[in-house]
Design goal:
Leucine Aminopeptidase, subunit E, domain 1; 315 residues; binds ligand AR6; alpha/beta
Length: 315
């Protein structure tokens, strides 16, 4: 999946490159910088000494040494000084130059910490918005998988005000529907036919067929659709070329969101893959909340799912 938020320690990530939130000296420091240097060993510092530092908003690359990652991309985010000193532009540039460097070194997978959001004091919610927006914009023209690594739980919890509405929606529906479970079963939805011919005649449009029809009806291109669904090209090609493809729930949901389907049509599409919107599932209720509010931004949906510890949408 092209953009994935994960809770992890970035030094443990098996990716082509991890990004370090460094300072202009590139000679180490606290926070994630300290953790990366400790895990990579002294050779990392030795290579950093040869680089001559790095300007804020720029990036430089080194080997990963003892890290599981092949490379470390060192970037310098801005120090937060209230937001009127070009902090946002510099932070965008830190992400962008790091991504460009990763692509120039043929990296397929890159992991970022939330740059500037620790010692440098950038407000975490704004730092996250800049990170997601910049990465998503870059992924429009590049095929790579980017992990956004959130380290401390406190940085991202459902206690945040912006999730209060979703929490209330969830509370109402989650409890309400557990007394009255709405389960869906393919088998019980239709009578079982006798002959095979009859069975085939009764077969509805498959997931893949319905998906491709809806893409056409909306005048979307395949690329627009899989990017909007936060899916990778290969997965989408599999779905396109196999009319019997059975997507995972997360993939089916992501495509329903990408198509901006209203709730009844989203249900219909999911049904072709054997899934229902269940009120016994927090994740389904959260997606339903966004659809009900006509917010089809998969990255915002994933942020909310992430905050509520639910599986994210995508491949
Ligand atoms: N894995 C992933 N994220 C981490 C880890 C880790 N192991 N450790 C911390 N974070 P910071 P900055 C998160 O302070 O704000 C250094 O001294 C942390 O929770 O590391 O860009 C440099 O040398 C926070 O959300 O970087 C510079 O002087 C995020 O990483 C200065 O700090 C960034 O926090 C840079 O400050």
């Amino acid at each position: 999946m092209p953009l994935r938020m994960v809770r992890n320690d970035i030094t443990t990530m098996r990716v082509d490159a991890i990004v370090n939130a460094a300072n202009e000296s590139l000679l180490g420091g606290g926070g994630v910088d300290g953790a990366i240097h400790r895990a990579a060993g002294p050779q990392l510092l030795a290579e950093c000494r040869t680089l001559g530092g790095c300007r804020t908003g720029q990036a430089k690359i080194t080997g990963g040494y003892r890290l599981p990652a092949r490379y470390v991309i060192h970037t310098v985010g801005p120090v937060w000084r209230g937001g009127r000193y070009g902090e946002k532009e510099l932070l965008v540039s830190a992400y962008r130059t790091s991504l460009e460097l990763a692509v120039a070194h043929d990296c397929q997978t890159v992991a970022f910490p939330l740059i500037s959001s620790g010692v440098y004091g950038y407000p975490k919610d704004q730092a996250l918005n800049v990170a997601v927006d910049t990465i998503v914009a870059f992924l429009q023209d590049h095929e790579l998988t980017v992990y956004l690594v959130i380290f401390d739980r406190a940085a991202y919890t459902i206690g945040e005000k912006r999730f209060a509405d979703i929490a209330a929606y969830l509370d109402a529906r989650y409890t309400q529907d557990r007394q009255e479970p709405t389960s869906f079963s393919m088998a019980s939805a239709q009578s079982v036919p006798d002959g095979l011919n009859e069975a085939l005649a009764m077969m509805d449009e498959s997931f893949s067929q319905m998906l491709l029809r809806k893409i056409d009806e909306r005048g979307m291109t395949d690329v627009q659709c899989y990017k909007k669904a936060n899916l990778d090209r290969r997965l989408f090609s599999k779905i396109r070329s196999d009319i019997h493809y059975r997507p995972s729930r997360a993939t089916a949901m992501a495509l329903a969101v990408a198509l901006e389907l209203p709730l009844d049509e989203a249900r219909e599409l999911l049904q072709t893959a054997g899934f229902a919107f269940s009120h016994a599932s927090k994740s389904d209720i959260i997606v339903e909340y966004f659809i009900a509010h006509q917010n089809y931004n998969i990255f915002e949906i994933n942020e909310a799912l992430f905050a509520f510890d639910q599986e994210l949408l995508g491949g």
